[in-house]
């Protein structure tokens, strides 16, 4: 048979569009239950089941040594795909704040220190932006006080160990950093991220609304188009 295009059922060299398919399961290389929830919601309509590293034994912690979201997504996906032998989707994401020169960026999860939680990271963000500073100007529009333009960025990598290749994508969403947290939904920096188009914080959106406009939702749409 001709080299390169050989493909029979049962071959380990699946076509890319078979990696994520209705009735199939995709492993997300994450311990972040907030991410898993959002992927589960997004994959539900196309009949794909989602699992993560909280439900997978024997995967050691993966150090995020990259300096870009794309590098970190690739290294998480590749490592877990090689260890498990199955295709793996990884998400590396974070918040880039203009007034902080793009920080915390790839360090978003460890902004307040290694192992810091969302609460400490949000507090650190507000303190770096001087949110405690006296504020006298009333917002004429009745809109909440914001401190800087910002964006969430999400890089995705879907790594297939059968072919040692990956499909990648990136998505963003623009917003403003709130001076005070609002909302209970979502995770991470969502309570401090104002979405002008909705007139609500990211943590005040329903899961469907968030997936429709978020960096993760946008990256996933693009990834699925590439498969
Ligand atoms: O939609 C989001 N809404 C709010 N905050 C978000 C979002 N997306 C990422 N973020 C923040 C959370 C964390 O501070 C960092 C991700 O860091 P990142 O290393 O990609 O994830 P992680 O360490 O929580 O889990 P894991 O590496 O196991 O996937 O950006
Ligand atoms: Mg991480």
From TrEMBL:
Q: Which domain of life is it from?
A: Bacteria
This protein's record includes keyword Cell membrane: no
Give the record's keywords alphabetically.
Answer: Hydrolase, Magnesium, Metal-binding, Nucleotide metabolism, Nucleotide-binding
UniProt source species: Cohnella faecalis
Does Nucleotide-binding appear among the keywords?
Answer: yes
Q: HAMAP family, alphabetically?
A: Non_canon_purine_NTPase (MF_01405)
Q: Which reaction does it catalyse?
A: ITP + H2O = IMP + diphosphate + H(+); dITP + H2O = dIMP + diphosphate + H(+); XTP + H2O = XMP + diphosphate + H(+)
Pfam families according to UniProt? Ham1p_like
Kindly identify the residues recorded as the active site.
92
EC number(s) on record? 3.6.1.66
Gene Ontology cellular component annotations, sorted alphabetically: cytosol
Task: Report residues binding substrate.
Answer: 30-35, 93, 187-190, 210, 215-216
InterPro entries per the UniProt record, alphabetical: dITP/XTP_pyrophosphatase, ITPase-like_fam, RdgB/HAM1
Which is a GO BP term held by this UniProt record? Answer: purine nucleoside triphosphate catabolic process
At the top of the EC hierarchy, this enzyme's class is: hydrolase
- Alphabetical list of PANTHER family matching this protein: INOSINE TRIPHOSPHATE PYROPHOSPHATASE, INOSINE TRIPHOSPHATE PYROPHOSPHATASE/HAM1 PROTEIN
Molecular function GO labels: dITP diphosphatase activity; ITP diphosphatase activity; metal ion binding; nucleotide binding; ribonucleoside triphosphate phosphatase activity; XTP diphosphatase activity
Q: Which family does it belong to?
A: Belongs to the HAM1 NTPase family.
Residues at which Mg(2+) binds? 63, 92
Q: How does it assemble?
A: Homodimer.
- Which cofactors? Mg(2+)
Annotated signal sequence range? none
Q: Which SUPFAM superfamilies match?
A: ITPase-like
What this protein is called in its record is dITP/XTP pyrophosphatase
Cofactor binding description: Binds 1 Mg(2+) ion per subunit.
